[in-house]
Amino acid sequence: MSAFANALTQLETAIAHGTFDPAAVELLRHPRRTLQVSLAVKMDDGSLRVFEGYRVQYNNARGPYKGGLRYHPQTDLDEVQALAFWMSIKCAVVDVPFGGGKGGITVDPKALSKGELERLTRAFTRAIADVIGPERDVPAPDVNTTPEIMGWIMDEYAQLTGNSSPAVVTGKPVALGGSEGRGTATGQGGFFVLQELQKKIGIDPESATVVVQGFGNVGRSFAALCHRHGWQVTGISDSHGGIVSETGLDPEAVAAWKKEHGGVSGFPGSRDVSNAELLEHPCGILAPSALENVITEENAPRIRAQVVLELANGPTTPGADRLLAERGVVVVPDVLANAGGVATSFLEWQQNREGAHWSEHEVFQKLSDIMVPAFRAAWEARERGGGSLRTASYLIALERICAAMKAKGWY
Ligand code: NAD
């Protein structure tokens, strides 16, 4: 199933549990604007290459479009549409005043030099400059994009438009107005959610084990937080493969190993496994933190986790969702579990607009004040409605988005 088909299935499932105007639902089945651009980049060897880039502006009823940029060889329009849809839902779940957007380029950034990556990013910024801006559409990092790349976007946008507001992107370096804590915010938000969930379903951190698929910005910071708070991290993977250890892994030591050896595999005291085996490793919390569609109808019967905490976007297909629910596995949906990233992007945007600079402590206190009520509201809605936590989160978000669209006279 394509990522966008997955997203629309989730929408239809939620709609079936609520009462929504058919016109509002029809609006939500379509992105408001889809931009596809061809980017010509001069390579270091003097040759010219053309890359495909995308920006999808899904829904802005509640505020400027907001969403990251992904650089990946498999990125295509379908994926970006799905991610932009999920951003619309996510911003409404945590009640930040943004709509949903997403962008990406079909590229393997690891095969480019730093200069090529910068020229590609600047070409992309020029191609989308007309439709982004602090009040219009605010990009941020996602898979394979970094604060440095956000800095290039901010600079190129300022040179083109004369608008040097730092609020045109979030997830930038602190030196350019980035927020303290943004780098680890998605993992931190996921951890706040896990702590709340623990109070509801009584997981004992001493005996609960955590397996994390994907060891980038999100997976690594989440794993480190779990370890620091006494949860035992027994499995970690990256795109090359995974490792498991029943006695627990120290994520910081694994990160140092990955830096030196190019991957987590071979970490001393652990056993190498494939990414498929890692997902099926018995654990309390399974946190997919890489890409979409990794938990499917095929492997869902073999997932042996009490909780799936979706730190990646779209890791579970609708068929797998159903199978996991039948087996009593609690799935904390992406639109809630990984919303700490966009929530902190909102805090960054707010600081930029106020000319403020908050400490990491202040930022995480404000993040907790966003994430904890959002989780509790979704949990209570699930208890009332009896569906999944995903459907409960969607219903909360859809009510907010539909109310804004109605108030704007869109239907
Ligand atoms: P990243 O580029 O920093 O890290 C991605 C990680 O996934 C890397 O460790 C990579 O090796 C690994 N990976 C790639 N393919 C894999 C595979 N097939 N199996 C196992 N591991 C694989 O990206 P990120 O920012 O950490 O994003 C990860 C996920 O979290 C994405 O789904 C993204 O959309 C989502 N997300 C990110 C943020 C954010 O703030 N960065 C916010 C919300 C959601």
Overview of this structure, please?
The protein is an alpha/beta fold. It has two domains: 32-178, Rossmann fold, CATH 3.40.50.10860; 185-337, Rossmann fold. 45% of the residues lie in helices and 18% in strands. The protein has 14 helices and twelve strands. The chain has a seven-stranded mixed β-sheet with strand order 9-8-7-6-10-11-12, sandwiched between helices. Helix 6 (185-201) crosses helix 12 and helix 12 (340-354) crosses helix 13 (360-385). The longest helix is centred in the last third of the chain and has 26 residues, at 360-385. The protein is globular. The mean pLDDT is 97. Residues 141-144, 186, 213-219, 237-239, 275, 289-291, 311-313, 338, 341 line the site of nicotinamide-adenine-dinucleotide. Nicotinamide-adenine-dinucleotide (NAD) is lined by residues 141-144, 186, 213-219, 237-239, 275, 289-291, 311-313, 338, 341.
